[in-house]
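Much of the work behind modern protein science is quiet bookkeeping, done one molecule at a time. The protein below has been through that process, and both of its lines are reproduced in full.
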Amino acid sequence: MWSWDITKLKDPVKGTWLCLYVILDIYSRAVVGWTVAYRESAALAERLIRQTVRKQGIPRDRLTLHADRGAAMKAKAVIELLADLGVTRSHSRPQQSNDNPFSEAQFKTLKYHHTFPDRFRSIQDARAFCRAFFGWYNTEHRHSGLALMTPHQVHYGDTAAICAARQAVLDEGHRRHPERFVRKPPEAPAPPAAVWINPPAEPKAS
């Protein structure tokens, strides 16, 4: 499942904005597609979604794409594209501001990063910044929700090997100094087995 959203970036002219479109894989938190444009546009969103689906090699009827209820997200061109690609649409519930939490959290990471400028000098400057930032975010940023693994490590299936290597180090530490572990031997944390935007309701006890 992917999530996508648009956030505004300050451009050189006070009171005007650039639009950053970002597509995020919610399980791995990897940014799989992005673009910076002068405006919010269904045509630009359509192009980005099409290119990202092809780049990631997503087969038909395997992907759900979640978004809020903005104009670009609900545009006819985007709806028809998703149908053509065999992608299931998902939208935030009406008047629910927290139904797209993964995209919102990623935007917060972006805008609170120490290198994020107060204002970009040009659209080229914004694109260069995002290219560097998303490269760092995907391959170096150790995500607290991913057991301190990077999004790309989870996205490309490296978690089992990493967990095994971490566990080997912990096991050796326990072997050498068992007195340091009072309750039980240490266990290497792993990323969650499943991730949901709105978890299914648990069946009620009869």
Observations:
- Strands lie at 2-10, 17-25, 31-37, 64-67, 88-91.
